[in-house]
Design goal:
- The complex is a heterodimer of chains A (about 425) and B (about 650).
- Chain A has eight helices and 14 strands.
- In chain A, a hairpin with a 4-residue loop joins β2 and β3.
- In chain A, α7 crosses α8.
- The chains are: A alpha+beta (about 425), B mainly alpha (about 650).
Amino acid sequence: MNRLPTRRLGSALALAAVALALAACSTQHYPNTTFTANTDVNVDVNALWNRILFMGTLVFIFVEALLIYVVIRFRARPGAPVPKQIHGSHVLEIVWTAIPVLILIPIAIPTVKTIFKTQAPAVADALQVEVYGHQWWWEFRYPQLGVVTANELYLPAGKTVNFTLQTRDVLHSFWTPGLSGKRDLITNKVNHLWYTPDAKLTEAAFNGFCTEYCGASHANMRFRVYTVSPENFDSWAAHQKTEAMGSPALLAAQAAADSAARRAPARAAVIPTPAPAPAMAAGYVFPADKMGAHTIPKTPIPASITYDDNLLAQGDAARGRALITNPANMAKASCLTCHVIKGEQAYVNDDVARGPNLTHVASRHTFGGGLFPLDAAHLARWVKNAQIMKPGATMNTFGVGQYSPMMKANVTVGLTDAEIADVVAYLLTLK
Amino acid sequence: MATTAAPAPAYAAAHAAGEQTGLWSWLATVDHKRIGTLYLWTALGFLFVGGIEAFIMRLQLMQPNGQVVSAELYNQLFTMHGTTMIFLVVMPLSAAFFNYLIPLQIGARDVAFPRLNAFSYWVYLFGGLFMTIPIFFNAAPDGGWFGYAPLTTLQFSAGLHIDFWVLGLQILGVSSLAAAFNFITTIINMRAPGMTLMRMPIFTWMSFVVQFLLVLAFPAITIALFFLQFDRFFGTQFYEIAAGADPLLWQHLFWVFGHPEVYILILPAFGLASEILPTFSQKPLFGYNVMVYSGIMIGFLGFGVWAHHMFAVGMGATADTIFSMATMLIGIPTGVKIFNWIATMWGGNLRFTVAMKFAIALVALFTIGGISGVMHSSPPTDLQQTDTYFIVAHFHYVLFGGSIMGIMGGIYHYYPKITGRYMSEKLGNWHFWLFFIGMNMTFFPMHFSGMLGMPRRIYTYDVGQGWETFNLWSTIGVFFQAAGLLIFAWNFLKSRKSGERAPNDAWGAGTLEWSIPSPPPEYNFAQLPVVTSRYPLWDLKHPERTADIAHSAPDQMTITDSHAVPMHEETERKSAKDLGIPMPFPTIKPLFAALFMVIMVGGLVFIHAATLQVALAVMISAAALFIGTVYGWLTSPLE
C-alpha cells in the first residue's frame, strides 16, 4: 500500500528540481543569483560548486533510487516466506565506507585549492575600499581617492578591489550574491575580501545584503553595487571627493582656483599649475535607467506617516541649507551632529558620525540602507519620522508633533512640513 | 495543561493492580514511564507553540513586503522558533523516549535516580514556560537562537528580551545535564543480566552516545552564557566591545556546544529508526556493530567541526581547511548508516505501517540534508550559502526530515506500548503524507531562494528579487504541515480512548520492552529477564531469526540477581506490593525544588525589570525555599 505514490512523488519532485535548476540560470528572473561568472573569485567558486552539485546529484539519485527499489521490491506480499536473516557483512561495510571517501576526495582537493587561492592576499595595486557596517546602513570609503559614501558602491570593471571590512557596532556580513561570497564584519577585528569584477561589466547594478543578523532592521540593511567603466569610475570619484554644493568651503575653493588661474600665466614658469577647479557639473552617476527593476526599492511607505507632497514644490534650498547648517537652528534640525556634509560646519567627523555622509547624497539612487528610492517624497517622510519608516532606526524624528518610538514621546521642537520641504530641497541639491 | 491529562483507559487494568491515578499521581510521580509521558505531552505542546511561530513567519514571508507582523515581533518569532524547536521540542521529545524506553530496553525497573529524573522534567517545564511566556508581552528573546555577541550585550539589547533567553537556557541546561548523568548511570549499572553493551538495543546505544554529548557539550554553552549573564547583570566585560572584547569568543564557545547539539538532536531519531526498520522488515538490523561504531564516530567527530559554522568570520585559510576536511569526514559514518538501513530492508518482508513510513522518510530526507551538508562543508561554496535560505533548507532536512520524522515514527511505534492502544493507521497515513509533502514543499524551494540570493532572518524582502515563487510555495507547504499536525493531535488524543487494543508485543519486535504488558506495570518487569542476544523476544518467538548470531545460553551465565529468569513474555499483571518489589515513593519535592530553582535563577530579571532590592528579595527567598526543599528531599527515604 502507498508504494506507487512514493514513486510518483519522487519523480515529480526530481522533475520539479531539474526544472527549477534550469530556470535558476536566468539572471533576468533571478537577479540576485549566485550562479554567475561576474568575478574571478565566483568563477572558481562556481566551478567548485558544479563539481559538488554533480557528485551530490549522483549520490541523491543512487540512494533515493535504491531506497525506492527496496521499498517496492521487498514489500510484504501475502504468503511471503520468512526473510533470510542477515546480520551484516564485513565486505559490504568496507565497500560503503569507501564509497563516501571516494566521493569526498574529488571534492576535498579542489576545495583546498580554492580556499588558498581565494584567501591569498589581494594584488598590490588593487583598489582599496573600506567597508564599515552600522546598524543598519553601509559606509564605503576609498582611502586612495579620499571618497566617503554610503549604501552605494562604485567599482571599476576589470580592476581588483580589496575590501577592508569593519563594523562600528554589532556583527554584520557583507554580501553581493551576484559578485562573490560573503565575509563577516566582526567588532574589534579587520576582515578582508577581494575580487575582480569582469571587465565587460561596465554598466551593471547588483544588490547587496547584510547576512549576519544585526537587530531590528537587519532585513533593511541593503546596498547597491555599480560596476562601471574605469573612466566613469574616475569621473565619479573625482566629483565625490569635492566639497558639498553651495558650501562655504566649495565656494572658497572655487574663488581661490579662479584667482590662481588669473595669476597663473605670470608664475607658470616657477610654480606647477594648480589642480583644475572642482567642476560645478556633477561627475558620472550610474544612470537610473540602467539599474534594473530589482535594484530600485519598492518598499511601501508606512500608512501612519502623512505628508502633503504639494508642499515639496515650494521647498527652498537656501532656507533648507540655513535650517541644517545655521547653529541657531540646532534645536530643531540637529542633522550635522550625526551627518557630515563636507565643506559645511562640522560637529562630527566621519569616524564618529552615526549617519551616512551626505556630501553628495543627491547623487545616490537609494537611501535608508537601500530601503527607499531617493526622491523628494521619500526623503520628506524620512526626515519627518525615520523611526516609523525603518524599524529600530536611531535617526531622530524631526517632524514636530510626530511620535518617536525611540523617545516614546511626541516631538515638541521639530520641523514643520513646510520646513521639511525646504530641507529636502536642499538635500536634493547635494549632487 | 496537557501534561496533566488523565491516563489511558487501559490503565483500568493498572487500577486493579493498585496503581495511582489522578492529578496528584502525576505531580508527585517518580516513575520513569510517567515522567517520559509528561515529557511527551509537554514537548508536543511546545511543538504547537513552535509550529505557530513558524506559521506566522511563513505568512509574513508569503509575499514581498509582508505586513503581518512587525520587524520586532518577527525577530522574536524566529528566535523563539529556533530556541523552542531545539530546546523545548526535539530534545525533550528525545528525552521522552530516553525516559520511557531506556529502562524497558535494558530490563530495569526504573532509572538510577528516579527523583532526579522528576526534577529534570519539572525544570524543563518551568524553564520552557519562563522563556515562552514573554512573547505574549512583546518581550521574548530576539537575538536569534545563536545569540551572537555583541548584539546580546546590554549596549545593544537593553530590554528584558535577552535576559529571558540567557537565564532560560541556563535553566534548561540544568535539566539536560541532570538527565544525562542519570541515564549514563542507568545504562552502565542497571542492565539486565546478560545484557552486555553490545547486546543493548540500538536506540539505547544512540541514547548512550547522546548523554555523553550532552555532558561534554553543555558546559561550553554554560560558560558562554555565564559570561553573558555576568556582563548583563554584574558589569563584567567578556563581550563588551567598548572594552575591547573579541566577539568571536562567543561564537567559538557557542558552536563547540552547537555542533554536537545537532547530533544530540539527530542520534535519538536515528536510534528510533533503527528500531522501527528491523521490526517491519522482519529482519535484524544490518551491521549492528557498525551502526554502534558509526554513532560513536559521529558523536566524536561532532566535537571537531564547530568552526564550519564560522567560515565567513575570517579565520584564515588553514583553519578553514582543517574544519572543512573534518566536516567532510562526518559524511562517512553518516553515509554508512544510510547504507545499513537500506541493507536492513533489503530482502525483508516490508510492512508499511505509519511508523515504518516515517522511518523510511527519515532515510530519504536525511540523505538530502546530508548532501547539502557536504555542499557547505566546502568553505568557498559555503560563503555563497551561509546565512541564506539554502542553510535553512539544509538544516530543516536534517532536523525536520531527520529528527522530527524519526520521532514521529517513534511515537506511532511506541504509542501502543505507552497507552495499550494503537493509534489510527488511517489518520496516521494522512498525517504522514501531509507532513512528507508539506515538508518538501516548504523546504525544498528554500534551496533555490537561498542560492538565488535570499538572506536568512529577514522579516521582509522587496518585490522583484526573484524569490516570490519560492516563498509562496514554502508558505503553501506550511499549510500541509499544519493540517498534518492537527490530524496527528486528533489521532493522538482520541486513540487513547478508542484505539484498537494492543498486546504486549504490538508489532512483532525483538527487544525487551515488548515482552511486558502494554502499558507496562509500574515495576516494568515482574522478574528481571536474562538476556542472551540482541533480540531476546525473537529468541523466544522467532528463534530462526536470531539463530546465527552469537548467543550465550542462560545456564552458562552467572546470574547474580535472584529475580532473573530466562527470557519469557509476561502476561500477568500484579501490583508491586503483591510481588514484593520495592518501588520509590512518590514525592512532590522534585517539583518544588525545580520551581524554586527556576524562580531563584529567573529572579535575576528583576534587576532590570524592577530594582536590585526586589531581585534580591525574590532570589534569596527562592534560594532558601530551594535549599529547604532539597534538604527535605535528600533526607526522605527513596523507597
